[in-house]
């Protein structure tokens, strides 16, 4: 099993390399569409959400409004439009920080956001400077690289990639932060980078007021399994067959593990909520009807169809989950009906 160890590449390293080139070279949204691009209401609701969170922080005179994985900048533009109109004092207090590694996407973001802000860009979440912060992250975690492990009759092994196929390399037994029992002959995915981000944010929020909101497709169960998938030319493609820069590699986010990391760091955790429930709590149906009432019949139908796509359980409403981390002294963020989870 170790025959190809010298020319094999660990799966998370393979994912990171392929995705870095993909986002640097492929036009955004050529293979998939994200919630902010489906409906302006999505970003508007998160802008209103951020206003309430800022007020719950005591309306600090200086605020970092950050987004990880901002895509074209559509979500931030929609949010800032609402903030500028409804909370001008907040608009004056904030600076916009974006976690984005692609030079091409940074140019697109600068163009879309120029009317509202002059963003400051960072390569990593922990590069964002100190101070009160609200962080938005929609479909960010799913693109972070994962390691895959499996227990066979000969012990634990890790997946490596060699010659566009998986290679099993012997390794020590993995563990997940929630301590779940790992079943034999079942792939276990661990996203170390996501765990580091959550841990760093938790430590930050213990010393400085802040809230981070994560929206992504994934699960909040104790299940494990292989969820690696790829899109090429808007169609599913075998992940390991992807040429560098030609496919978007993602996995389902393990929210159970990430919430466990945050709780161990003693930060307040919220969720998960289904995206459909979360958006309904924030008023997506009411806002959609408000816009539809001033639109022509064709546009009104498109607005309602877009909202249905975001909230319907059989579409994005159930598959996408919402999680938040917050400083323990802050009130429950909007949209989370259960309060903090112990």
TrEMBL record:
<dbReference type="GO" id="GO:0035243">
    <property type="term" value="F:protein-arginine omega-N symmetric methyltransferase activity"/>
</dbReference>
<dbReference type="GO" id="GO:0032259">
    <property type="term" value="P:methylation"/>
</dbReference>
<dbReference type="InterPro" id="IPR038375">
    <property type="entry name" value="NDUFAF7_sf"/>
</dbReference>
<dbReference type="Pfam" id="PF02636">
    <property type="entry name" value="Methyltransf_28"/>
</dbReference>
<dbReference type="InterPro" id="IPR003788">
    <property type="entry name" value="NDUFAF7"/>
</dbReference>
<dbReference type="InterPro" id="IPR029063">
    <property type="entry name" value="SAM-dependent_MTases_sf"/>
</dbReference>
<keyword id="KW-0808">Transferase</keyword>
<keyword id="KW-0489">Methyltransferase</keyword>
<protein>
    <submittedName>
        <fullName>Class I SAM-dependent methyltransferase</fullName>
    </submittedName>
</protein>
